[in-house]
Structures are given as structure tokens and as C-alpha cells.
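thought: fold this chain, then report.
action: predict
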Amino acid sequence: MRLLLVEDDAELGRRLSERLGSAGMAVDWVQTAEAARDWPDLAETAAIILDLGLPDGDGLDLLRHWRAAGQAVPILILTARGNWRDKVEGLNSGADDFLVKPVRFEELLARLHALWRRGRGQSASTVTAGDLALDPVARTATRGGEPLDLSRKEFALLHLFLRRPGHVIPQDAILDQLYALEAERDRNAVEAHISRLRRKIGRDAIRTVRGLGYRLDV
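observation:
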């Protein structure tokens, strides 16, 4: 899952980026409204975590800007503003969820996954294809009921394939989901991750479609 984190507090932004990264997400972190306003990769973003008290503007104005521009990406407000009027205004301005700082990381993670499922018309957290199953909230993956021991990147990669079984996923789309926009991207690393994942879920489970990308066939 690819996220945009808009948070001006350097320490909180660093901690959230690290913990979300450890949960298998690729996080793009910006600290100002100006940097976030015309973010170039919103089409590849699964959700936005938005602080309201930014140094160069109000997060609500940024939220309204995105919605007026037709951006449908799920937006979760994470703010120190805790009164009911702020929550009502945030939701009425187009936010999908609203959390008040401080918040337990487990709740934030669960809310993000709930937004992701809601956007795809799903109710259960587990995604499945054939005898493969993955629960992004519990951070578990199985094949035929047997647990899979996956690295963070392998888990994220399998999650991506399970969201689109039978569809060819281009290498660039895989890079977008595994790495933040500013991160160094290595196309050879994608093949290495896929090779290791194949050894764990079955060599024929992921097909290489030459010149196009990869497809999960289970």
C-alpha cells in the first residue's frame, strides 16, 4: 500500500514513516501544504494521512483543494484538534475518517486498512486467491492453511498480487507500491523479490508476461 503522509512534526513524521514502513507500506512524507498540494503521484496513492495544523496553511483548505480537483483518494485526518466541530467540518469537507492525536498505531493501521477495503467494496480484511490468503491487519499470510514466512517486501508484493489476481501488473506499478517516490528504485530488485516469493508460494504461481509485467495465476 502506498501512502502520502502530510505531517509537519518531524519526530512524529519520522516515527509514523518508520512504523508504517515496517507494516509493509511505502510512505511518501511531506511537511508542508505547498509540497502536498500538487503531489504528482496521487493516482498511485492508496490513502492520505493529513494533519490540519501545517506551517504554511490549514489542512482543511488542502483537503478541499483535492476534492475540488476530483481527487477521490481516501483521506484520514490525524490532528491534535479534538472538538466535535473540527471533526464535523473535516468530514463535511471530504475526509473519510478523523483521528485525534495521540492515537495508538494499531488503531491508525486498522483505520487505513478499513479505508482501503471500503474503497474496493470489501468487508473482510483477508484477501484470498486460490489457496493463498493474506491478512494485512494481522500481518499473516498462508498457503493451503500453512503459514508463510515472508519478508516485508515479499508480504507487500503478495498483497499487491492478491488484490489483482489474474491481472498483469507492470513492473513500474510494482515499484510504485514497494517504494516511496523519493526512494532509490532498483528494477533488478523487483525480479529478486519475485524470485524469492515464487520459492515460497510456488514457482508457477507468478507468471512473467514478457514485455508487460507479472501475473498471479492460482
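thought: worth noting. The chain has a mean pLDDT of 90.
final: C-alpha cells above.
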